[in-house]
Amino acid sequence: MTKGQAISLQKNDGGSLTSVRMGLGWQAAPRRGLFGSRTREIDLDASAVLFADKQPVDVVFFRHLVSDDGSVRHTGDNLVGGVGQGGDDEAILVDLQRVPVHIDQIVFTVNSFTGQTFQEVQNAFCRLVDETNGQELARYTLAGGGQYTAQIMAKVHRSGAGWALTALGSPANGRTFQDLMPAILPVL
Amino acid sequence: MTAELVRGQNHPLSQARLEVRISAGTPVVAAATFGDADGRIGGADRVAHPGGPVLPGLEVSRQAAADHRLAVDLDAVPDAVHRVSVLLALPAPGRTGPVRFGAVAAPFVAVTGLDGSEIASFTMTGLDAETAVIALELYRRQGAWKVRAVGQGYAGGLAELLTDQGLADAHGLAASVHEAVARGRADAVPAPPPRPADGDRSRPTAAPALGPDHGDTAAQGAPGPVPSPPAYGPQTPGTPGQSPTGPQQPPPPFPGGPGPEDATLAQPPAPAPGGPVDYSHPRRQTTAPPPPPPTVPPAEPGQPARPVAGDATGWSMEERLYNQVWGMFEDLARTMAAYRSAVDFADSRLEKELDQVLSDPRSRIGGHGDAARETARERYDSLVAQARQVLDRDLTQLAAESDVVEPALPLAYARWDHPVWHDYRVPMEIPMAVRLGDLHLPEADGVRIPMLVRLPLERGLWIDSGRAPSLDGSFGDAHELRGLALEAAVAHAARLLAVHPAGEFTVHVIDPAGAGARELTPLVRSGVLATPPAAGAAGVADVLSRLTQRVDLVQMALRGGAADALPPEFDTSQHLLIVNDFPHGFDDRAVNQLRYLADEGPSVGVHLMMVADREESAEYGPLLDPLWRALLRLTPVADDHLADPWVGHAWTYEPPLVPSGSQVLQRVLTEVATARRTWGR
């Protein structure tokens, strides 16, 4: 997927998706020169913010792993990344059937909790997987790591009777999702 | 934090210097092999065994022993080595020892840090004709070491095992290992003769010294008397070797399930006469696979799956039902949170839109404003209707689940009107949890969630006899409320007595002014109480000082690590103290003792059940606040005061009432009293 691209989350057979997983993976970029093998640990955090009509209703992040309504679940904080070597280091599961009726957008963000910019991260990606069969629906790579510490990755929003995914990829700065709120609002 | 591994499971190792501790009920040979990336051993010099015990970074014992401690330094292991397998083998046949692992206790291995802290452990169950086994392997994974529980046995012994790992002269090496062991045994101090006093606990050990990990062995070895009251882990019903003539808990009926899948299936079969003795600890969770959960029939297309009782994780039906009930509780809490959040949002949106209409000058002219108001209300109604539809869908599903779960519940979880109470027998095992009542939410009156609380109780109970602003306002009479509170307390106590095996639960009652004589009759007349209800200041002081002493004694023994030192006749049961009519008859000293019991009692199996009105004890001021906070507040009438741990809704609690006119309580208590007399406690 590329920035700004939107896909509909309808299955090929016409049925709509029931459960999706937003996976996040990354590795710390190795440093060049002396002591190059010493990689510093980078703690990226995935968060999901649930919006109803542009008002934040609930947030799922490492301190609040399950949304109150139980529809969005974080699988837990990963403090170093790179464990899965291409697999997801953090994942957020969304049970689309259980998302409360007034929630119309779910925004996924990534923050560097330890403060490194994305220049020091390599192989970072976010992907959306159909949790029922493990099929990857979309993959979005955090290319060209710049001088920023957060990124608003994508949003899942209601479209017609079903849901659609839009890749956002807009950079921002902040340690946790709270810092990102001003940056999120324009993309809703 | 110890990871109890099951076969095939792995666990990361964060440190390089480790000890592998092995405990078997009989002398075994410990060895280790170094394998390459393919798991193959290059040659005999890659095997640490009693004949050649040292490899870089690893050393094994020179002789067979029931307990081994292998020091491992993973940093010193050569880079070409990708896998370190730890092996156990029985000494060569023809000796007096056992000839197969099936005849001895399940060997137990643990990986510990140098300070003895356990990192991972693994009990090798299910071995039979094997005489050698790969216990676990330490392996490199992307530059880090991990441990994997293997438990692969070989009936052909060490030779077959080494052949399987690709060693050319496996038979020659195996023979030399056994020869070295035989030589080592001749040099060893002979095993001490078994002590006659507790012969069933002694183990045939050839090794002279048992390491400090002896405690580990005892914990998983023979089931000796372990008199520490709070040591109850999760229980699996049905103990191997229990008296077949003793009263058994009838298997609960499982309508909807695929037949009576009793949890006892999880247990190893009872030992046949003359067969091998099962040394595994009856309270220890084995790695035997749990009985399969009931299979859910495939849902019809477009329909939600039909719920089935026991459709949750767990080692026994009891545990699965417990987890299922908690799952229902959480689902109801969360689906209600979704509904309430949607309605709140609709409310605030409506308000905002109506405000906008008011402030819009155009709305003052003609029907424009009315139309806008109409639209706003329609949007509100449609959103709320949508939310309600989703809620109803979820409630229907939960109600259907509740309909199949309730009849399947075992004794301790069942309502008093459940048929399982009618053919009540005193159980042999303490259940995981007990039902203290029902919970529901106002928007979902039809779905009642059993309120299950783990046993042994973590905190005492406070049955509030105060005149709380009740839901329906019908209970105005303070006296009547006090009677109801004590009745509820008696029902809770009766249930706790009934779900514990005979003699494992003791109830004391303090009723200083004798005000509760009528409500206490069921307990008194059936003879389940250890002593009659204590009355008067002297009675209060006597009961409290006895229980305080007990708490002190058990605490001292546990802190000193000398639970064995308690006198043998010391009764290790759980104790419950019902205090009626607090604070009448209590002086400052007694109040302090009560607070001490509330704070320190639960950890040593002494629990409080206060039947009291908080207002009435206000004369003690804030002194008593910690006491109330330490207790779980229940009410004798429906009251919405309990919060769930996820969202914090206020749940309406309903006490478990014995159906009026039913004799079930009396019958159950009579049965308990008979059993207590039979057990002589």
CATH domain fold name of chain A: Lipoxygenase-1
Q: What's the overall geometry of chain B?
A: globular
List unreliable stretches of 5+ residues of chain B.
187-276, 285-289
Taking all residues together, what is the mean pLDDT of chain A? 81
The rounded Rg of chain A comes to 16 Å
Across the major sheet of chain A, the strand order is 1-11-10-7-3-4
Largest sheet of chain A: 6 strands, antiparallel
Largest interface: A-B, 16 and 19 residues
Estimated structural class of chain B: alpha+beta
What share of the residues of chain A lie within helices?
under 10%
Count, helices of chain B: 11
Tally of separate domains of chain B: 3
| Average pLDDT number of chain B | 77
SSE order of chain A in H/E notation? EEEEEEEEEEEH
Identify the CATH class of chain A. Mainly Beta
The CATH homologous superfamily of the largest domain in chain B is named P-loop containing nucleotide triphosphate hydrolases
Largest sheet of chain B: 12 strands, mixed
Family (chain B): Belongs to the CAPAB/TerDEXZ family.
InterPro entries (chain B): P-loop_NTPase (IPR027417), Stress/Tellurium_Resist (IPR051324), TerD (IPR003325)
Protein name (chain B): Export associated protein
